[in-house]
Amino acid sequence: xQITAAIAREPNKPFAVEKIELDENIRDDEVLVRxxxxxxxxxxxxxxxQYYPVPLPFVPGHEGSGVVxxxxxxxxxxxxxxxxxxxxxxxxACPSCQEGDPGYCHSLxxxxxxxxxxxxxxxTLSKNGELIHGYFFSQSxxxxxxxxxxxxxxxxxxxxxxxxxxxxxxxxxxxxxxxMNSLHPRAGSSIAVFGAGGxxxxxxxxxxxVGCTTIISVDVKPGRLKLAKELGATHTIDASKGNxxxxxQKITGGGANYTLETTALPQVLRxxxxxxxxxxxxxxxxxxxLGTEVSLDMNSIMFGRTIRGIIEGDSVPDxxxxxxxxxxxxxxxxxxxxxxxYPLDKINDAVADSEKGTTIKPILMxx
Length: 367
Ligand SMILES: [Zn+2]
Ligand SMILES: [Zn+2]
Known about the structure:
It is a single chain. By secondary structure, the chain is of the alpha/beta class. The strands form three sheets. Strands 3, 4, 5, 8, 9, 16 and 17 form a seven-stranded mixed beta sheet that branches. Helix 4 runs parallel beside helix 5. The chain starts with a strand and ends with a strand. It binds zinc ion (ZN) (2 copies). The site of one zinc ion (ZN) has 5 residues, from loops.
């Protein structure tokens, strides 16, 4: 069938919105989804720009939401008409998957960045005979239809506004899960979140949900810090104007119980570790280019402190995504405050606005 989709054709060049062909002959384990909307995440841009070797041209999009149109013969989890959020894919068979940690799947790269079906390398998208790589995060949801697999579609309640739910599949799951699943702070504890983009602000909202009473947002953009405050941060620090580590020590009386790094900058990771109290835990979410090194005072990690990396918020998506939807519907997790909608053909405006920092989470509407 013919679909309109946004294509990454060249690094550092605008996306092209074109009509292309999608081979709708789905496999036994696949699900054809009519995409309603898709969130845009930094990963879409850095893959277009080839920080990670995703084959060009390809259709990005890994925060899709939509309605199931057809299912393969072996699919039992969802049926046509179901509302679904599309998330990352994983193999289901490696040691991490078997132990319930799919974000650390040993085959994560092939299942999400390979540009083709991981099973046999076949493609699903083309234009006049030219292969367009698809299957980005086993969805390529910057288009009107997406082929996903049973494993990476998550059924959600159908009274929730479907067009807002896509980012729960990646960016919001990453930030909120980093707090709720990975760090799981005790009620009454303190947390400092470095970076107030979509991931960092999701972490702030999650810290409110779990009952942190000192919630510090650190960023260099006043507009984002203002939003962090609206979402429940008890303190904000403009790191361009002062020493964030000293301010956190002062606010918390000696250091935060938890810190979260979402910026992928080594000097910020250093500040995250230096801002911890004794036995504090620093979560590392920001994905830096391969080979990025950081320097630490070895003594700063001696006193029971922990530094741990976190992928996709340690989420088991079928469990965690519906929980976040319930929190949103109860008014306790206002993800809509991060979002701004754009029609798909205005995708390059969405990129420009998110690079300027005026939009936190663009939502691309398919129709
Ligand atoms: Zn696996
Ligand atoms: Zn993402």
